[in-house]
Amino acid sequence: MYRRHVAAQAVFAAGLFLTLLGAVFLLGSMAGISRLSVLWSFLFMSIGAFCAALALKRGKRALYLFFASFFILVGLFLFLSALRIIPVSLAQGWPLLSVFAGLALLPAGWRHYRAFRYRFLIPSLAFVILGCALSIFSFKVVSFSFRLFIIHWWPLLIVLAGMVLVLLSLSSKSRNGDEVS
Q1: Are 119 and 107 in contact (CB under 8 A)?
Q2: pTM here?
Q3: What is residue 24's three-state secondary structure?
Q4: How far is CA 10 from CA 4, 7, 14, 129, in A?
Q5: In a domain, 169, yes or no
Q6: Which of 12, 53, 83, 117 minimizes the number of CB atoms within 10 Å of its CB?
Q7: Residue 70: which of 109, 94, 103 has the closest Cα?
Q8: Residue 58 lies in a domain
Q9: How confident is the model at residue 173 (pLDDT cuts 50, 70, 90)?
Q10: How far apart are CA 143 and CA 121, in angstroms?
């Protein structure tokens, strides 16, 4: 009885995998794009789906949810980029990986604590802000380079690091029941 159940789940998973792979290739061939770029995006989304299945199977661990969210977001970005719906290549949009990592921390933190906590929220916001800041230079929104920005504004990085440490300190004090003055 147990073997039938496992076999039925394996057949279902294989069928779902082949259906999605065929649909992805069909969409890719209709748009006239390279099958390799579609395959990479599908590979990332498949890894994300596998991590999501592990999260469901093994008690929804936060680490599995993080990787599931991250790989699905990266795969979706690559797929939309390959279809030219988002006119950005990975070479130009690499800072978005930091944004995806920050966004992927949110469900992981929610699962771990059943609420948004500073332990996950602060790093998540830091990754999103870092990705957005680097995107400004990658997408050439500003006329000067990242190198020039760092040369003139490096003390700002120290200020931001200090603010993050203060917020983490305040959150740990309030969590421990200490009085924050």
Answers
A1: no
A2: 0.67
A3: helix
A4: 10, 5, 6, 41
A5: no
A6: 12
A7: 103
A8: yes
A9: low
A10: 32
